[in-house]
Model the fold of this input.
Amino acid sequence: MSILLGCIADDFTGATDLANNLVRNGMRVVQTIGIPQRGLDQDFDAVVVALKSRNLESGEAIAQSLEALDWLRTQGAQQIYFKYCSTFDSTPKGNIGPVTEALMDALDTDFTIATPAFPDNGRSVFKGYLFVGDVLLSESGMRDHPLTPMTDPNLVRVLQAQCKKKVGLISYQSVLAGAQAVTDRIAELRAQNVSIAIVDAVSNEDLYRIAPALKNLPLLTGGSGVAIGLPGNFGLITRPETSVLPPALGYQAIISGSCSEATNRQVAYFKQQGGAAYAINPLELVSESANAILPNILAWAKPLLPAGPVLIYSTAKPDEVRAIQAKLGMQAAGSAIENMLASIAQGLVGLGVGQILVAGGETSGACVRELGVDQMQIGPQIDPGVPWCYAQGKHQALHLTLKSGNFGTDDFFTKAFSKL
Done:
């Protein structure tokens, strides 16, 4: 088997976000959880290797990304795609810049692009500035992100601070003029020794215009938006059969560890609609009674599952998150919550849950590992960037949705299961 597009994603929800856009535009896609340790279940046009490298130390993130690259190249991948969040989540030191440069060096390429633009989810780039909806990135909820607060919307400036290579801009003027103008601008930047270019885009039409100019680049980097135009570069068109999954079975559950503004609204809406919900107090996870939390939650959920989806959540507002981090420490707080939610996911499967919606990138990573999932077939979209997936867990087949904290409409939790 030789795959057309080999993708490396720096978190699990971002991987499904990317895979979703490729499926919707004609590619058969599998997402692997980490670097595959076995063969793929069937033939696919694209493989998305999902790592949990966004918040690792840069050296470790680079090492994991290069290992994923090596595996994809052994599968014959014709082009490589490094995917990060559409809100450009990173610390001042990386990891977007360092990983991009390492991949460029490994592929012996002198140029690549970078654009987190994803208009379907309100992410647009203009004059190099990233907007979330109608506001600059620095004025959005990302300014309060507990791990990667984003306070500078100028992507050229943000990325240059992380890179040794020179960063430039392909402005909207070139994008609007079409693929040849973008190609000409790439040639100009190369002549100026620019190695990485932020690309403006404010609509899906912009992303489709950009795509042909990217056909011959060994490496692309960005959010999932630019992926919508790539299947056409391989002669593929939208095909309904690419998103068909086996029938869904079992009870339904939602596990939420995200503290984003969008997920807070989704939790609130679900509860307002009368949904059964159980709130976890993170401080209890390090108390003497922590061992009782899991059996208590499962005992609460068991009689409710036949009536519809149940929600277990640790979602909190920014000031509550900061208070918890101050008491426990950032890493300890995050690990305690992720581990508990992952154990809950496994416990729910034991109660007969076969359809699970997970909100939050870190939470998704912990849950799929606990469930023993290593490959997922990508299915139908629920909201932009969020598809249903099908996977074989430790003991049974599962339908999963891994939702980025910032994605989805307010009624996401209530409507998601209707898509199956």
